[in-house]
């Protein structure tokens, strides 16, 4: 425990592995401690890691199976206990480890009668099966069914389009999520202003990455995701108001985002935001639609006087629109705009 406030503020955050064990070939567990955090920081880090570990860590899986001489997925092969559908789906459960992002091919072949497992699959050099005992099919006669398999690396999961299957080739819904579960807890230590937080993170994986490897990769992914925000350029940009010269050095500086002028970006956004987002009363909403005012940009082309000229649109409705604009978009209706004659009455 830290002795004083000075050492508390300068001590760097460190982590340590408290426990690491293999509960099975396809179930690895790791428990880590990270500290010290200022109050509130442990929750921020814990939440980010809990989302990044299952979603951002890539996995390797079998995405396609091909059988020679097979018409459709419910066909049968003499001597093969499973249907083609079952024999093509079972390989997706095989846990693979690979550092390659290329699409690779593997072949499963074994002479029966026997249980065909992951160990009977000929894998590319950069691919490894975590558990060779994982079941694929059973042959009940002395046959050697050859199954061609396609291997890919990705994140998350993928639902395949079954309409693209044919000629004995079947797509497989793949799950590229080697992290099975994540849990974290936060505990306080210290007193008064020196109170800090310590976080415990528990990770379960299928063994293709160890919990330590998954934690390290998730950290790198989070840093990569936040990198664009650190590359925002700051500069002195003057706002143009009432067509005045932008060279006026008394204007306030603003943030220039890399993807364009802030006013242009805002204008595009407002053109794609519909007045539904204002959550106006039905009376006011229907009046605006009858006047062909559909977006926030359309609405900002109207003054209070313009709106008050709409049929059945009284001062109360104008006030409701004005308040909703300010509350939700920090915008005010302009003082002077084109007359109402361009709308339907």
Could you give the count of β-strands? 17
Q: Which percent range describes the beta-strand content?
A: 25-35%
> What is the average per-residue confidence, as pLDDT, rounded to a whole number?
81
Percent of residues in helices: 25-40%
Radius of gyration using CA atoms only = 31 Å
Question: What is the CATH T-level topology of the largest domain?
Answer: RNA Polymerase Alpha Subunit, Chain A, domain 2
Keywords: Chloroplast, DNA-directed RNA polymerase, Nucleotidyltransferase, Plastid, Transcription, Transferase
Region (Alpha C-terminal domain (alpha-CTD)): 269-345
Function: DNA-dependent RNA polymerase catalyzes the transcription of DNA into RNA using the four ribonucleoside triphosphates as substrates.
Organism: Adiantum aleuticum
Features:
alpha+beta; 345 residues; disordered N terminus; 17 strands; five-stranded antiparallel sheet; RNA Polymerase Alpha Subunit, Chain A, domain 2; 28% strand; single chain; 3 domains; Gyrase A, domain 2; DNA polymerase, domain 1; four-stranded antiparallel sheet; 26% helix; 9 helices
Describe the fold and architecture.
- The protein is of the alpha+beta class.
- The protein folds into three domains: 14-57 and 179-222, RNA polymerase, RBP11-like subunit (Gyrase A, domain 2), CATH 3.30.1360; 59-176, Beta Complex (RNA Polymerase Alpha Subunit, Chain A, domain 2), CATH 2.170.120; 267-329, Orthogonal Bundle (DNA polymerase, domain 1).
- 26% of the residues lie in helices and 28% in strands.
- It is built from nine helices and 17 strands.
- The strands form six sheets. Strands 7-5-10-3-12 form a five-stranded antiparallel sheet.
- Strand 1 and strand 2 (27-37) form a beta hairpin.
- Helix 2 packs across helix 4.
- The longest helix has 20 residues, at 211-230.
